[in-house]
User: Fold this.
Amino acid sequence: MSAKRKQLESGFQKKLIKELHEMLPGALIYKNETLQGLPDLTVLWNEHWALLECKREEDAKKQLNQPYYVEKANQMSFGRFIYPENKQEVLNDLQQAFGLSRKACDPQSE
Assistant:
């Protein structure tokens, strides 16, 4: 991956982490970098958890094991590929999976 592409994904990931902290007060969000293919972020909030794989765009290349881990996480709790084009949909799905209403968590919805 080129340095510019990595920077685009990294910038998206940084903004996403900030938005997740605003949406889920007190959540623990970890960046996963140890196991190839493991999704980028682990989100822990109360009794809920999610794995999110950040991509700079929908068609970005996936590593060998990423689809497996995202699907496995989704079967167990919540797992998704997330990129700018589907971010709102994924965050809405995450809130629903975590038992939250969008209005309760989104100050812009008021």
In short: The chain has one domain: 3-109. Confidence is low (pLDDT under 50) at residues 104-110. The chain is about 45% helix and 20% strand.
